[in-house]
C-alpha cells in the first residue's frame, strides 16, 4: 500500500526546492570553484578484488576526501557560492553525519561561522568532530522529531544560511566533481565504458555523478546501490514517483538511511538513472571486511555498499552484464567516518 | 644486570648466521629481482599530520604492500634467489605473523611448496591467511618453547629450505627496496635530508633501509623505533653489544616483540644506526587512532610505532632536531595485518 507523503523538509532562509532549482546547477563552475579546496582522491585498484569479482575493479576512494567523505565537495561549493554572492551569513546544517563535518570544515576554512543541529542521540565522536572544526553543535533538546523545527527556528532567529545535505543545486554541483575526476582517471587508464556503482541516500552524490558522466564519459553506465531496508530510491524508480518509506530505515548503512530521495535529486535520478540495486547488512559487513583486510582501508558501512553489491554477485546477476567478461567496474567508496568499535562489531570475529 | 645470552635461533638447512653472510647482501640484485612481484607502495602525505607534528610528514605505506606488510619484499627475494640457484625445495618459515603470510604468498606465486610453523596459540585469522595462500600451517603441538626444534626437525625430515624472518642477507636485501623506493619518491619531491623513522623488531627492515639510503640518499638520517617493553635494540646500541631481553616482551606491537636483534642485523645496525627511541603502548594506540580517523588507514600497532614517536613529542624532544623547523620526516608504516577487534580494543571508545 502506498504510504502518504511526508511533509517536505524545510528550506529555511532559502527558496523551497522545486523544479526551478535545477537551472541553478552549474557543474563547470563548481569544478573551478572548489579546485584546491578538496582533494583529488585516488582511483585505487586491487588485483584481489578483480579476481574475486570477475571484473576489473576500481575504487574511487572518497573516504580519503577531506573531512572523510565526498560531502566536502558539495559543502565547499555551496559555501563558496554564497561568498561570491556577498552572503557572509553563518552556515547552518541539519546533520548527524558527514555533511555536518564537511560544512564545519568549509566554514572554518572560509572564515564563516557554522552551526550544526544534531539529535541528542548523535554519536559523541561526530559531535566532537564538528566542534573540532570550530563549529557550534546544537544537540540539547534536539530529537528526531523536532530537529527540522529547531533548524528552521535557528535559521530565522539567527539569520543563518541553511544548506541542505543533498537537495540543493550547489551541493549537487559540488558532488558532480567526483564524476569529472572519475572520467579523467578512467580515460587515462583507457576505460571508456565503465559500470559505475554509486551509493544512494538522499541522492545528491548520484545526481551529480550522473550529470558529470553524461557530459564527460557518455558511454559510462551508472547503477545506484541502496540498503535493502532503505530502498526508497529503488521503489521510486519502479513506481515512477518519489516514494517515501513509512519510517526511518534500520540499517548499518546510516548514511543511506533516508526515507526518500530529495526532490531535485529525484528529478535528476528519474531522468538519468536506469536502476538501483540493494544490499543487505551482512553483505555490507562482508564488504567492510574485504576492504579492511585486503585493501587496509577504513570505509564506513554506507561507503562500502558498492563493494557489497559487487561481492555479493560475482557472476554479475544482480548487477547485470558483468558475466560477459572484460567489464570495468568502479565502486565509489563514499566515506570513511566510523569508529573502530562500529566496524569491529559489524565485521565480527573473523578467522 | 646483564642477562645470559640465549641459544641462537637455528638455521636448519642453511649455514649459521655469521659475519660472513654480510657478503651475500646484494641490494641491486634484489631490486631487479623483485620488481613487478611486489608493490611500489605510495608515499602518502597528510596536512593534518604536518600541523600536528610541526614538520612535513610523509607516510611510506607498506601496510598496502602485498600480503599486508614489507615482509613480501624479503620473502620474494629470498625465494627467488633459491630458484636462481636451482633450488626448488619447499620453503619453511617459523612465524606467527607477517613473514609467514609473505612467504606463503611468494611460494604460491613461484610454484613452490611452503610450510609455516606457528604456535598453537597463534591468531586463527593468521593461520587462515597462511592456509589461504595455499601453504601448510603447522600448529598442532607447537609451543613458544619447542617451535624452533619443530622447525629444525621439519627442515631436516622433509628437506625444506628454512628462510629466517630477518637474519638473512637475502631477506635484508629485499627489505632494502623500501629504502630505494623512498629515496626516489623523496627526491622527486625535492627532499634530500629527511629524518626516516623505521620500526625495529628483529632488525631486518631497518638494516636494509640503512644500507639502501646510505647509497641512494646519503644525507638522510635514520632513527629506529622500538616498543618500550621490547627495547633490546636500544640497549644494544647503548651498551655496544647485542643485548637479549630475559623474556619475550609484552607489547601491543607484536611484530616488534623480539628478545634481541638478529646477528647479521646487529652488525649492520651497530655500524650504521645512531639511535633507537621507544614508544609506549598508549602512544601506539594514539597513533593507530590518528591513522584511522585522519588517514582512514588500517595500520597494525607495530606499523604505527613510527607515527607514535612523532606524535608523542611534537616539539621534537625525543626525536631531536625537529624543533629547528623545516624538518621533513618519513614514518615507515610497516604493515596492516590486524583484526577490527584488535584495533577497537587498542583504540578504545573515542569521543
Please tag this protein with its features.
351 residues, 10 strands, homodimer, disordered N terminus, six-stranded mixed beta sheet
Question: Describe it for me?
Answer:
Two copies of one chain form a homodimer. By secondary structure, chain A is α/β, with parallel strands linked by helices. Helices cover 41% and strands 13% of the residues of chain A. A six-stranded mixed β-sheet of chain A has the order 1-2-10-7-8-9, sandwiched between helices. Chain A has a four-stranded parallel β-sheet with strand order 5-4-3-6, sandwiched between helices. In chain A, helix 3 crosses helix 4, helix 4 runs parallel beside helix 5 and helix 11 packs across helix 12 (305-312). Chain A is globular and about 55 Å long. At the A-B interface, helix 5, helix 11 and helix 13 of A face helix 5, helix 11 and helix 13 of B.
Amino acid at each position: 500500500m502506498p504510504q502518504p507523503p511526508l511533509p517536505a523538509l524545510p528550506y529555511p532562509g532559502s527558496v523551497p526546492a522545486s523544479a526551478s532549482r535545477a537551472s541553478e546547477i552549474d557543474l563547470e563552475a563548481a569544478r573551478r570553484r572548489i579546485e584546491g579546496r578538496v582533494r583529488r582522491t585516488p582511483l585505487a585498484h586491487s588485483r584481489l578484488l578483480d579476481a574475486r569479482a570477475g571484473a576489473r575493479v576500481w575504487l574511487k576512494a572518497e573516504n580519503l576526501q577531506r573531512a572523510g567523505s565526498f560531502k566536502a565537495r558539495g559543502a565547499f561549493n555551496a559555501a563558496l557560492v554564497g561568498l561570491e554572492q556577498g552572503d557572509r551569513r553563518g552556515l547552518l546544517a541539519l546533520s548527524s553525519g558527514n555533511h555536518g563535518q564537511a560544512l564545519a570544515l568549509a566554514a572554518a576554512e572560509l572564515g564563516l561561522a557554522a552551526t550544526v543541529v544534531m539529535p541528542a542521540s548523535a554519536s559523541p565522536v561526530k559531535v566532537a568532530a564538528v566542534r573540532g572544526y570550530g563549529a557550534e553543535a546544537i544537540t540539547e533538546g534536539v530529537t528526531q522529531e523536532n530537529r527540522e523545527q529547531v533548524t528552521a527556528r535557528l535559521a530565522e532567529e539567527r539569520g543563518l544560511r541553511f544548506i541542505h545535505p543533498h537537495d540543493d543545486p550547489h551541493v549537487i554541483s559540488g558532488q558532480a566533481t567526483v564524476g569529472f575526476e572519475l572520467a579523467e582517471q578512467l580515460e587515462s587508464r583507457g576505460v571508456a565504458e565503465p559500470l559505475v556503482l554509486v551509493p544512494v541516500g538522499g541522492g545528491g552524490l548520484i545526481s551529480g555523478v550522473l550529470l558529470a558522466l553524461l557530459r564527460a564519459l557518455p558511454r559510462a553506465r551508472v547503477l545506484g546501490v541502496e540498503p535493502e531496508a532503505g530502498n526508497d530510491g529503488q521503489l521510486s524508480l519502479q513506481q515512477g514517483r518519489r516514494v517515501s518509506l513509512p519510517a526511518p530505515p534500520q540499517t548499518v548503512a546510516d548514511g543511506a538511511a533516508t526515507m526518500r530521495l530529495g526532490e531535485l535529486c529525484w528529478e535528476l535520478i528519474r531522468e538519468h538513472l536506469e536502476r538501483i540495486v540493494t544490499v543487505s547488512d551482512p553483505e555490507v559487513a562482508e564488504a567492510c571486511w574485504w576492504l579492511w583486510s585486503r585493501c587496509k582501508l577504513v570505509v564506513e558501512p554506507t561507503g562500502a555498499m558498492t563493494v557489497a553489491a559487487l561481492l555479493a554477485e560475482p557472476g554479475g546477476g544482480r548487477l547485470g552484464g558483468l558475466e560477459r567478461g572484460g567489464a570495468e567496474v568502479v565502486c565509489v567508496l563514499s566515506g570513511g567516518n566510523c569508529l573502530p568499535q562500529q566496524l569491529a562489531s559489524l565485521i565480527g570475529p573473523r578467522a
